[in-house]
Specification:
alpha/beta, 6-stranded mixed β-sheet
C-alpha cells in the first residue's frame, strides 16, 4: 500500500524509494499508466467532523486509519480485501487490488526481499529500546498537555518502512494514521534516538486529532479572538510547532536535551518551535493542559519572532484557497504548490458563479490564489464585483499579470494568464519577491 502511494508521488512516501524505482527496470510506460490509474481512484475519501473547527486536523476524517490498520494486519492481498469490505466501494477495492498485484514484483525485488530479515531484527530491537526507556509512559504526559482522549487499551503500532536509497540512518520522515506509525529508515540503522523523535512528533499529531471537541473549539476562539495581528499566523502554525516541540521534548528525555541545530525543515516552524519550547516544556512537566494563558503567550512569541509575517508569502501560503477555471486544474495550480508550502489547501473550480468558493475567498481564513485562464473579461468582471480588494485596481483582460494585494478581508493573489508558461512565471515571480509589495501590487507577465 505505502509502496504504491510513494511511487505515485504521494506526500506520505519517502522520496528516495521513488527515485530507486524510477531507475529500475520496473519503471515502464505500463507501470506509469498503472500509477495514473491509482492516482485517479478515490481511495481515501474524506469528510468533515461536525462540531470541530474545520481548519484543524481534528476537523477532517477519512477512511485512511482503518485501511492502514487493516493493511498492517493483513497476511496477503486477498486478506486485505476481506478486512476492508464495506470501508470503500467494491469498485475501488477491486481496482486497488489490481494495482497492488501489478506492483508486487517490484515491491518484492526492490523493498521486501533485500530487507525483510534485517527489518524484523530492527523492529524487535526498536521495541526493546522503547520499553527499556519507558518512553511510552513519558509520552503519556503529552496526552495531558493536549487534552486528548486516547484509550489505554489501544496501543500505538510502529511499523518500519525501508528507505530504498543510500542513506544509512533514519530519515526525518514518518506518517501517522490512527494508531499506526510508519517510520522510514535504513534497514541496518540503530539510531533509535533520532528515529524516536520523529515517531513521537507524528504521534503528537494523533493526539491533536483526538483532542476533546470542546477544547478544540476553545483553542480556535482563544487564538482567533486575540487582538494581535499575529493571531492567524500563530494559529496556522500551532499544529506543526507543538508536534515539533513534543518530539524534541521526548528526545530530551533520552539525552538530557533537545537536538542541536535545525528541528524542522521549514524556517517558520523551526524557529517558532524553538521559541515555544520553554513554554510548552513547563506545561508538560507540570502536568498542565494547554489553556488560554498558553495561547496568549504563544501568539506573543510568534509576533516577536516573525515581525513581517503579515506580508511574507512563506507565511501567507500556509492556508490557501486555489480557485481556478483552468481545464487542467492541477497543472494550473502546481507551479504555486511547487514554490510554496501549505498546511491546508482548498481547491475550487469553476470561478464563475461558485458561491461556496466565493464565500471562502471572502472569509479571510485562507489566502485566495486565483489563476484566470479563460473567459478573462467575464471572469475579471465577476471577481471585481464580489471581491472588494480588486476594485481599486485597473485590470485589463487582454493583459497578462499577477496582482498581489491586500483588502478588507486580507491578502489576495490574482493571476491573469493566457499561456501555461505565464502561470509558472507568476509563481516564480512571487517566490523571488518573497513579500507582498504594497508599492507595486500589479506586475506584468511576459
Amino acid at each position: 500500500m505505502r509502496f504504491v502511494e510513494t511511487l505515485a508521488g504521494g506526500s506520505g512516501g519517502y522520496g528516495g524509494s521513488r527515485r530507486v524505482f524510477e531507475k529500475s527496470r520496473f519503471n515502464t510506460p505500463a507501470a506509469r499508466r498503472w500509477l495514473r490509474r491509482y492516482q485517479s481512484l478515490d481511495h481515501e475519501p474524506g469528510y468533515d467532523r461536525e462540531g470541530y473547527p474545520t481548519d484543524r486536523i481534528g476537523g477532517q476524517g477519512s477512511t485512511a486509519p482503518s485501511y492502514m490498520a487493516a493493511s498492517a494486519d493483513a497476511q496477503d492481498l486477498a486478506d486485505l480485501q476481506r478486512r476492508t469490505v464495506g470501508l470503500l466501494p467494491n469498485e475501488v477495492l477491486v481496482a486497488l487490488d489490481s494495482v497492488y498485484r501489478y506492483f508486487t514484483p517490484a515491491f518484492d525485488t526492490l523493498a521486501w526481499q533485500p530487507h525483510a530479515a534485517e527489518l524484523g531484527r530492527q523492529r524487535t530491537a526498536y521495541a526493546q529500546f522503547l520499553a527499556q526507556g519507558q518512553l511510552m509512559g513519558q509520552f503519556g504526559r503529552l496526552r495531558t498537555f493536549y487534552g486528548s482522549v486516547w484509550p489505554d487499551a489501544v496501543p500505538y503500532r510502529i511499523q518500519l518502512n525501508p528507505q530504498l536509497d543510500q542513506g544509512k540512518g533514519f530519515t526525518n520522515h514518518a506518517t501517522v494514521s490512527g494508531n499506526v506509525v510508519l517510520l522510514d529508515c535504513h534497514p541496518t540503522s540503530r539510531d533509535f534516538v533520532a528515529g524516536s523523535a520523529v515517531v513521537f512528533h507524528e504521534m503528537s499529531h494523533s493526539l491533536s486529532v483526538q483532542q476533546r471537541q470542546r477544547l478544540q473549539q476553545q483553542l480556535q476562539g482563544w487564538y482567533l479572538g486575540s487582538a494581535s495581528p499575529a493571531r492567524r499566523g500563530a494559529y496556522n502554525l500551532m499544529e506543526e510547532a507543538l508536534a515539533t516541540v513534543a518530539g524534541e521534548w521526548m528526545h530530551a528525555q533520552q539525552t538530557g536535551r533537545p537536538e542541536t541545530g535545525e528541528w524542522y525543515r521549514d524556517d517558520y516552524i523551526n524557529r517558532y518551535a524553538q521559541a515555544l519550547y520553554p513554554l510548552m516544556k513547563g506545561y508538560v512537566e507540570r502536568g498542565q493542559t494547554i489553556d488560554s494563558l498558553f495561547v496568549g503567550q504563544a501568539i506573543g512569541l510568534f509576533e516577536r519572532t516573525f515581525p513581517r509575517a503579515a506580508t511574507d508569502y512563506a507565511n501567507l501560503f500556509r492556508q490557501v484557497l486555489y480557485w481556478s477555471d483552468a481545464d487542467d486544474y492541477q497543472a494550473a495550480v502546481q507551479p504555486f504548490k511547487d514554490q510554496f508550502r501549505s498546511t491546508f489547501t482548498y481547491t475550487a473550480t469553476p470561478i464563475l458563479n461558485s458561491a461556496k468558493a466565493l464565500s471562502r475567498a471572502r472569509g479571510g481564513e485562507y489566502l485566495p490564489v486565483i489563476p484566470v485562464t479563460r473567459q478573462h473579461t467575464a471572469t475579471l468582471r465577476y471577481l471585481r464585483q464580489h471581491l472588494p480588494a480588486l476594485r481599486r485596481h485597473h485590470l485589463r483582460p487582454k493583459h497578462s499579470f499577477v496582482l498581489s494585494t491586500n483588502g478588507p478581508n486580507g491578502p489576495l493573489i490574482l493571476v491573469n494568464a493566457h499561456t501555461p508558461a505565464q502561470l509558472a512565471a507568476a509563481a516564480t515571480l512571487l517566490a523571488q519577491q518573497k513579500h507582498l509589495n504594497a508599492a507595486q501590487p500589479l506586475m506584468p507577465l511576459k
